[in-house]
Specification:
Blueprint: H1 21-26, E1 43-49, E2 52-64, E3 67-76, E4 79-80, E5 83-84, E6 88-97, E7 100-110, E8 113-122, E9 125-130, E10 133-137, E11 142-143, E12 157-158, E13 168-172, E14 176-181, E15 185-189, E16 195-201, E17 207-212
Parallel strand pairs: 11-12
Antiparallel strand pairs: 1-2, 1-17, 2-3, 3-6, 4-5, 6-7, 7-8, 8-9, 9-10, 13-14, 14-15, 15-16, 16-17
């Protein structure tokens, strides 16, 4: 998932834990289609790499009056001989109202390194705070959430693992939306427009993909 962006390089995972950075960041951050407005439909995926399950990604929706909260939980923890060699946990909650972004809080644990991001829509802007420091973005800016496909190619998109605008382009189709640039990934959608799959290739050449649970 998930999924989401950010190119600032950090030391890679230990040998055997080669989950691609771009794939991980895309997933959560990685990591949700107005066509899938889906107050009554949650998402749950197995994260697969070279035929093995290495993690999970789930998204749960709750209606709170006029607001809808989506909670995305992404966990990748590949094992070698039964031992976890790398851990990537990303949890974020995005709140929308009438389909418009209102606020997001995000917490990433990458092998013990914690990154927190907060964003909120205010009059005439989106205020964002992450590893790049406080930023003031355009009023229609929104996070990269794969279930919110109506945003793609229409509004400025920021990542939820560093909290900054992403330099990305889109190839948009009815059943698939491909993202290029800082995030390289393909999200897939069913006939009803609901998010149904995800795949990405990382810098180590390995693919990850989602399988519905």
């Amino acid at each position: 998932m998930n999924a989401a962006g950010e190119t600032r390089r950090q030391p890679g995972p230990p040998a055997g834990g080669g989950i691609a950075r771009r794939a991980l960041l895309a997933s959560p951050a990685l990591l949700l289609a107005q066509g899938a407005r889906a107050e009554d439909r949650d998402f749950s995926f197995r994260v697969m790499r070279r035929g093995d399950q290495v993690g999970t990604h789930s998204v749960r929706f709750v209606q709170r009056g006029r607001e809808r909260a989506a909670t995305s939980e992404f966990l990748v923890a590949p094992r070698v001989m039964g031992i976890v060699v790398y851990r990537f946990e990303h949890r974020y909650e995005e709140v929308t109202e009438g389909g418009r972004f209102r606020r997001v809080t995000s917490r990433l644990n990458r092998n013990g390194r914690i990154v927190e991001v907060r964003g909120e829509a205010v009059a005439g802007a989106v205020l964002l705070d992450g590893t790049e420091g406080p930023q003031r973005l355009a009023a229609d800016a929104a996070p990269l959430s794969w279930w919110e496909r109506e945003r793609f190619g229409r509004v400025p998109i920021f990542g939820t693992t560093t909290g900054r605008l992403l330099a990305i382009t889109w190839d948009l189709g009815r059943e698939a939306c491909a993202c290029h640039g800082e995030v390289e990934a393909v999200a897939r959608y069913d006939a009803a427009g609901c998010w149904s799959g995800f795949s990405a290739r990382g810098e180590d050449g390995n693919d990850i993909s989602y399988e519905p649970v």
